[in-house]
Automatic annotation (TrEMBL):
Entry protein name: Lysophospholipid acyltransferase 5
Membrane-spanning parts: 41-59, 66-85, 97-123, 135-154, 255-274, 399-420, 463-481, 488-506
Record keyword Transcription regulation present: no
GO cellular component: endoplasmic reticulum; membrane
Family membership: Belongs to the membrane-bound acyltransferase family.
């Protein structure tokens, strides 16, 4: 026999169910618990915001810039945590982990504007499911994703650069368009595809979490680099763990290489922070510069351009290190000389799959083409694979090149200055290629350039000419305001435009002076 407490007996006598009373009491406590949790979260967010604002004031930078830098640095602990605790989990867990981390970093840097990214990811997923195997998918993706990005540019446009959700959304736009093309390519006959299309083609439609994890991969969704879904799948499947190095040990991302990119990125960050204190982005249009003699203006513009561009290098190097640490950057093997025995070679893993800047080439370049090959390389490769090479049906290389440049200009924004910048790039690159083609066929050039003293003497001059031209070409891109860059160009007498636009008229005289044989003078038409 069991006995109930007196109060329970009393409740039963009066028709009150004790269990119901307890449940009601618990239910009444739930809103209070949620309220307390909400207050704690709000307090933590407020404390974080206050700490970031104080730190930004302390180091003398803007809060959005500091948030971006902190978000890039967080990519390193995220990569380590994934390797140690998440990499062995099912793919759905890993995709959710990367997707969730990306959303959190998006909220930290953009606030609730990260919802723009989520909307575009959802729309892209629905398009892939509905018509991903047809040409409608890549066509719709280009139109919709680019239109959404342009809407964002129109909504947030100012006369100067500002941090907004479009900063990361331009990276997301290319990534989502690329997935649409890759899934479409995966359904085609392999015999009709290029090498890159075969390599990146997707046979199966990605799940929503998979799409989100790839699109918002924490180490790359804010500032790049671009990488295909196939590379992301390689990481999620854990294929890296099954690869052995030359000594038979399991391959592991090199911590030293990753930290080396981080240190180099922080050095360029320091160059930008210190340099921009003396030469802010508006310095090129300042009276202090424009009232100087022409030779001083040209030299100071070179320094100003290098300082201004350093911020891009710093971001790409920091993100590259995080990608290396995660294992995403693995890019196969290559043969290298054995340091112990130069007569032998050893097989070493390459970790440059997410490299967006080749620093050594950038700092020693002597030709404009070198900059195309070393600067923002993953974006350039994306445009080459998904835009330029898909224009081959036009059978005109220069037209394909112009279409690619136009796409890049539109992708950057609606500001007229972007179109001027890419026009500058087009005329400089095309004229340089044509000029070097003349040199390659010139016996005069070959004779003199075969002498070491001539080559060594010309190199510093070529470096100066390169940076005089580059600093001139990027002025509209960095200043944005038409009034500002027009004032600068006027003070420089449009000298780079004069040189390169007059090249077709000077070409006959150059050919005669360089003694290019007439029978080799004709070039293949595009």
């Amino acid at each position: 026999m069991s006995f109930a407490p007196p109060d329970v007996v009393s409740d039963r006598i009066w028709g009150i169910d004790p269990a119901a009373t307890v449940n009601a009491s618990l239910a009444s406590q739930r809103p209070l618990g949620l309220l307390l949790l909400s207050q704690h979260v709000t307090g933590a967010v407020a404390a974080l915001d206050s700490a970031v604002a104080s730190l930004a004031t302390l180091v003398g930078t803007s809060e959005p810039s500091l948030r971006l830098l902190l978000a890039l640095l967080v990519g390193y602990p995220i990569a380590v945590f994934h390797r140690l605790a998440v990499s062995g989990a099912p793919s759905v867990v890993q995709n959710a982990f990367f997707f969730g981390c990306g959303v959190v970093l998006g909220v930290f840097t953009q606030g609730w504007d990260v919802c723009h990214a989520l909307v575009c990811i959802l729309v892209q997923y629905l398009v892939l499911v509905a018509c991903g195997k047809t040409y409608v998918s890549p066509l719709f993706s280009v139109v919709f994703q680019l239109a959404y990005l342009l809407f964002g540019y129109w909504q947030t446009e100012t006369e100067d650069y500002n941090f907004s959700w479009t900063l990361s959304h331009c990276v997301l736009t290319l990534r989502l368009i690329g997935i649409a093309f890759d899934y479409y390519d995966g359904q085609q006959d392999p015999e009709t595809l290029s090498k890159e299309q075969k390599l990146n083609g997707l046979r199966r439609c990605p799940s929503f979490l998979e799409l989100g994890g790839h699109a918002l991969f924490p180490a790359s969704f804010l500032v790049g680099p671009q990488f295909p879904m196939k590379r992301y799948k390689f990481l999620i499947r854990g294929d890296l763990k099954r690869i052995r190095d030359s000594e038979g040990y399991p391959l592991s991302p090199p911590l030293g290489v990753a930290l080396g990119r981080l240190v180099l990125g922080l050095l360029y960050t320091g160059v930008y922070v210190v340099g921009s204190g003396y030469m802010p982005v508006d310095y090129a249009a300042s009276d202090d510069l424009l009232n100087r003699p022409l030779w001083q203006r040209l030299c100071l513009l070179v320094v100003w351009a290098k300082v201004s561009v350093a911020k891009y290098l710093s971001c790409w190097l920091i993100t590259e290190g995080a990608c290396i640490l995660s294992g995403l950057s693995f890019n196969g093997f290559e043969e290298q000389p054995d340091p112990k025995d130069p007569t032998k070679t050893i097989t070493k893993a390459k970790w440059d799959g997410c490299r967006n800047i080749h620093v050594s080439v950038y700092e020693t370049a002597t030709e404009y083409q070198h900059m195309i090959l070393c600067f923002n390389t993953n974006t350039n490769a994306w445009v080459a694979n998904y835009i330029y090479k898909r224009m081959k049906f036009l059978n005109k290389k220069h037209v394909s090149h112009m279409v690619a440049m136009a796409f890049l200009a539109v992708w950057h924004g609606l500001n007229f200055s972007y179109y001027v910048t890419f026009f500058n790039e087009y005329i400089i690159i095309s004229r340089e290629r044509d000029f070097y083609d003349l040199l390659d066929r010139s016996p005069v050039y070959k004779y003199w350039f075969s002498k070491k003293w001539v080559r060594y003497s010309l190199k510093p001059l070529k470096v100066l000419w390169l940076w005089f031209g580059l600093s001139y070409a990027v002025i509209p891109f960095l200043l944005l305001s038409t009034d500002k860059w027009w004032r600068v160009y006027t003070s420089l007498y449009f000298h780079i435009h004069v040189v390169f636009l007059s090249y077709p008229f000077l070409k006959p005289s150059l050919k005669k002076w360089l003694q290019v044989p007439d029978e080799q003078d004709s070039k293949k038409k595009d």
